[in-house]
Design a protein that fits this description.
There is one protein chain. This protein is mainly alpha-helical and about 300 residues long. It has one domain: ABC transporter involved in vitamin B12 uptake, BtuC (Orthogonal Bundle), CATH 1.10.3470. Helices cover about 70% and strands about 5% of the residues. It has a two-stranded antiparallel ribbon with strand order 1-2. A hairpin with an 8-residue loop joins strand 1 and strand 2. The longest helix is centred in the N-terminal third of the chain and has 31 residues. It is globular, with a radius of gyration of 20 Å.
Amino acid sequence: MSFFLETLLGGLMSGMLYSLVALGFVLIYKASGVFNFAQGAMVLFAALSMARFSEWIPLWLGMEDNLFLANLLAIAVSVVVMFAVAWLIERLVLRHLVNQEGATLLMATLGIGYFLDGIGQTVFGSDIYKIDVGMPKEPVTVLESVFEGGILINKEDFVAAFIAAMLVLALTIFFQKTATGRALRAVADDHQAAQSIGIPLGRIWVIVWCVAGITALVAGIIWGSKLGAQFSLSTVALRALPVVILGGLTSVPGAIIGGLIIGVGEKLSEVFLGPYVGGGIEIWFAYMLALVFLLFRPQGLFGEKIIDRV
């Protein structure tokens, strides 16, 4: 029983990290109605920014003995960097594509993604960089009095999952309870109608790309702390694609539930079914589940069902 619970908790924690990346896709889609293929590049760019500034700031300010404050400053600078990226994307790209076809916006995000990959390598370098924000690395055993041997939990995964859960909760409240969140949904439904009632499209897009940038920064710091800030981080977004398909492109709660389902499903299937089929289930489980949903419920669990009247 303790082994099952360890696997279940590990899946839930991984699922929260998937949800964090998937949120970036959902946020952009809710505001612009386009799937943002630049999300992986944003996660990578944010991770590189955090890693490099956490190295440079202690040297610039002579703070080698106060790494905690140096990390706080690095996070603050990275937030400003991601805000600047969001503003430039709206100013130089999206502003000129208002009311264009979805395919045009899709290709624009592809171009943004490749540009961020290239500029990130130019500015920050292409090595593997360490991100150390003080997250505990060693595992801990809990509930020893309940289960024989207790349950082994990775502290880093637990802290990361908690941070992701808090951010997800804050974003859910933002979209459901604030005027700006409702304006974002209106813009996603119809750009022209939103503009006709006085919603400033440019400002809304800047806001949502800034929020997506902060989400990418948190995801980049967490994944970078686990794997190092390296260019393979841009592929983390591919792991979040099935989450978006499962939960629904327009649903913040769907991104959460979808991430948890896929995280738990991957871990349980790999541990309990893997030995019978030769392993490797964790690699393709999420994509097979997404394929099933595309066949039978393409809008996802919480996505809006599209009804065309002719």
